[in-house]
Write a structure and sequence with these properties.
The structure holds two protein chains of two kinds. By secondary structure, chain A is mainly α. Chain A is built from twelve helices and two strands. The longest helix of chain A has 42 residues. Chain B is globular, with a radius of gyration of 18 Å. Chain B starts with a strand and ends in a 5-residue tail after the last helix. The chains are: A mainly alpha, B alpha/beta.
Chain lengths: 302, 253
C-alpha cells in the first residue's frame, strides 16, 4: 500500500516536470508567434497605399517627403552588398581558422585560439562600430582619397569580424564530427595530412560547413548597430564598394524614433522588418535543408 | 630453401604514455603467406599490426623502441617517410570505412594521390581492383553510387579493393570480419585465400577458427608479449607453450 502511494506521487511528479518543460518550450514558440503577428499587423497596412512591387523594387526611399516614396530597393541592395562582401572575407578566414583549430594546431595553441575567437564573438557590436568609425573610416578615406570612409567596405570588414566566430565555431564542430575511421582510411592509403584534410575531412564536413556559412550570413544581414555606425547611411543604389549605403536594419533603427505612430513611414519600416525576417528565414531554411540533405548521404551505415 | 621474410620486428617495445603495450616482440613475417595474430582483447596484437605501417604515429604520446624492418630497412629510421611506407603496406580496418564518396572514387583515391591521371589507366585499375576483391559483378553497374549504399560485407570488400588499387606488397587486416555476418565473413576468407598468391597478409583476429582456416603462421599474444609463434597447424594441434594451449582450448581469454 505504502509502495503504491509512493509510485503514484512519483508518477505525478513526472507529469508535472514534463508539463513544465513543455510549457517553457512552447513559450518561446508563442513569443515568436506574437512578435510575428505584431510585425505583420503593423507592416501590412502599408500595402493599402503602395503595391508590394513598388515597395520592394522602388528605387527612391523618401519617407518624409510629400508625397512620400517608399521604395526599399536601395536598402535591400545595401544589405545584400554588405553581406556579400562580409562573407567574401569571413568565409575563408572562418573556415581556415576552423581547419587549423580542429586538425592542425597543437593542443596548447588550440585552446588559446578557441578562447580568443569566442572573445571576438562576445565583443559588443557598438564597440566594433566605434572602431570602424574612428580608425578604419578615416584610414580608408585618406588612403583611397574618398569623400567618406563610412561605406560598404568598411561595414563589410566590421561585419566579417562579427561573422567569423559563428562560421569558425560551427565549422569546427562539423570538422570534429568527421569519423576517425575516414581519417585513418585516408592515412592508410598513403595520404598526407593536407591531402586528408582537403579530400576527406572537408568534404565529409560539408553539410556542417555550409550551415556555418549560411548562419554567418544570417548574422551579418541582421546586424544593426555596426552598419548604422559605419555604412554611411545613404539610401541610394551603390555603384562601387566605396559608396555609402543604408542597409534595411540601419534604416529601421535610425528612423523608427522619428516616424509618427501608424503613419505611412511607420508602416513602411515595419514592412521592411517583414522583408528582413523573410530573408533570414530563407537563410535558415536553406541551412536546414543543406545539413539534412548531406547528412543522409554522408553518414556511414553498416 | 631460404625463407623470404618481408617484415621483421626486432625487440619491439611500444608505449602509450607510461603504459607498456608491447614488450620485446621479435617476429618475422614470411612473404606471400597469411600470418594470423591472435590473443585476448588488449594483448597488443592490433597495436603491433598498426606499428607495421606506422598508423600509431597518429596517436599522440606514443613511443616505439626496437626495430621494424620492411625489406631490410628500418621503417622507424628518421629518414623514412611514413606516407611512402603506407603506400606499400595497405590496411583494412575492423569496421568497414569507405569514404562517403562514389564507389569509383573510393577506389581511385590512392591512385590519384600517387599522381595517376590517365582516365583509361584509372578505369582499368578500378575494374582490376574490384575483380580482385570479388566485388566487380555486384557493383559494375552502380560505380557512381555512394559507397554508403552497399551492405557491410560489400563495403569491407570495397575497402580491400581500395587498398589493392594502391598496389601494395603487404595487406594488414585488423579483425576485418568482426563486424560482418557469416556469409560475408566466408566471402572475405575466400578472398584472403586468393590474395595470398600476390600479397603478404597479416591479419588480427578474435576468431580462432578463422585463424586456423586461413593462415599459415600464427602468433599468440598475451599481455603485450608474443607468447608463441609457429606454423598454424602446430599452434592449433600441438603448441609448445601451455598458455597457448589454454587459450586455444578456451580455458581463458
Amino acid at each position: 500500500m505504502k509502495n503504491r502511494k509512493h509510485s503514484l506521487t512519483k508518477h505525478a511528479k513526472e507529469i508535472a516536470i514534463r508539463n513544465l518543460f513543455g510549457f517553457f518550450a512552447f513559450l518561446s514558440v508563442l513569443l515568436l508567434g506574437l512578435i510575428l503577428v505584431f510585425l505583420f499587423r503593423e507592416g501590412l497596412p502599408l500595402f493599402k497605399q503602395i503595391s508590394v512591387v513598388d515597395f520592394l523594387f522602388g528605387t527612391a526611399w523618401y519617407p518624409t517627403y510629400d508625397p512620400p516614396e517608399y521604395g526599399i530597393w536601395p536598402l535591400i541592395v545595401g544589405s545584400l552588398a554588405i553581406t556579400f562582401f562580409a562573407c567574401l572575407i569571413a568565409v575563408p578566414l572562418g573556415l581556415l581558422s576552423a581547419v587549423y583549430i580542429a586538425e592542425i594546431a597543437p593542443a596548447g595553441i588550440k585552446e588559446i585560439l578557441k578562447s580568443i575567437i569566442e572573445l571576438l564573438a562576445g565583443l559588443p557590436s557598438v564597440v566594433l562600430g566605434f572602431f570602424g568609425m574612428v580608425i578604419v573610416g578615416p584610414w580608408l578615406q585618406e588612403t583611397f582619397d574618398l569623400p567618406t570612409g563610412l561605406n560598404i567596405i568598411n561595414a563589410a570588414v566590421m561585419l566579417a569580424i562579427m561573422a567569423i566566430p559563428t562560421i569558425s565555431s560551427i565549422s569546427e564542430d562539423a570538422l570534429y564530427a568527421v569519423p576517425r575511421e575516414f581519417k585513418e582510411a585516408s592515412y592508410a592509403l598513403g595520404a598526407t595530412k593536407y591531402e586528408t584534410i582537403i579530400r576527406v575531412i572537408i568534404p565529409a564536413a560539408l553539410s556542417g560547413v555550409s550551415t556555418a556559412v549560411i548562419l554567418g550570413m544570417a548574422r551579418a544581414i541582421g546586424e544593426t548597430m555596426v552598419v548604422l555606425m559605419v555604412a554611411g547611411g545613404a539610401a541610394a543604389i551603390p555603384e562601387g564598394i566605396f559608396d555609402a549605403v543604408r542597409p534595411m536594419t540601419a534604416s529601421i533603427a535610425a528612423e523608427m524614433g522619428e516616424a509618427p505612430f501608424r503613419s505611412g513611414h511607420y508602416h513602411a519600416l515595419f514592412a521592411t522588418g517583414i522583408v528582413l525576417f523573410m530573408i533570414t528565414l530563407a537563410f535558415n531554411l536553406i541551412a536546414d535543408y543543406i545539413s539534412n540533405r548531406f547528412r543522409e548521404t554522408g553518414s556511414g551505415t553498416l | 630453401m631460404e625463407k623470404d621474410f618481408i617484415i621483421r620486428t626486432k625487440n619491439v617495445d611500444f608505449f602509450y604514455g607510461a603504459f607498456r603495450a608491447l614488450s620485446d616482440v621479435t617476429v618475422d613475417f614470411e612473404k606471400n603467406k597469411v600470418t594470423a595474430l591472435i590473443g585476448p582483447s588488449g594483448c597488443g596484437k592490433s597495436t603491433l599490426l598498426r606499428l607495421l605501417n606506422r598508423m600509431n604515429d597518429l596517436i599522440d604520446g606514443t613511443r616505439v623502441e626496437g626495430e621494424i624492418l620492411f625489406e631490410g630497412r628500418n621503417i622507424y629510421a628518421p629518414d623514412v617517410d611514413p606516407v611512402e611506407i603506407r603506400q606499400r603496406i595497405g590496411m583494412v580496418f575492423q569496421k568497414p570505412n569507405p569514404f562517403p564518396k562514389s564507389i569509383f572514387n573510393n577506389i581511385t583515391y590512392a591512385p590519384k594521390l600517387a599522381g595517376i591521371r590517365d582516365r583509361g589507366e584509372i578505369e582499368a585499375l578500378v575494374e582490376a581492383s574490384l575483380k580482385q576483391a570479388v566485388l566487380w559483378d555486384e557493383v559494375k553497374d552502380i560505380l557512381t553510387k555512394s559507397a554508403m549504399t552497399l551492405s557491410g560485407g560489400q563495403q569491407q570488400r570495397l575497402c580491400i579493393a581500395r587498398a589493392l588499387a594502391m598496389k601494395p606488397d603487404v595487406i594488414l587486416m585488423d579483425e576485418p570480419t568482426s563486424a560482418l555476418d557469416p556469409i560475408s565473413t566466408a566471402k572475405i576468407e575466400e578472398l584472403i585465400d586468393t590474395l595470398k598468391k600476390h600479397y603478404t597478409i597479416i591479419i588480427v583476429t578474435h576468431n580462432m577458427q578463422q585463424a586456423a582456416r586461413i593462415s599459415e603462421y600464427t602468433g599468440f599474444f598475451y599481455l603485450g608479449k608474443l607468447i608463441e609463434f609457429n606454423a598454424t597447424e602446430k599452434i592449433f594441434t600441438n603448441p609448445d607453450v601451455k598458455q597457448t594451449e589454454d587459450y586455444i582450448t578456451g580455458r581463458f581469454g
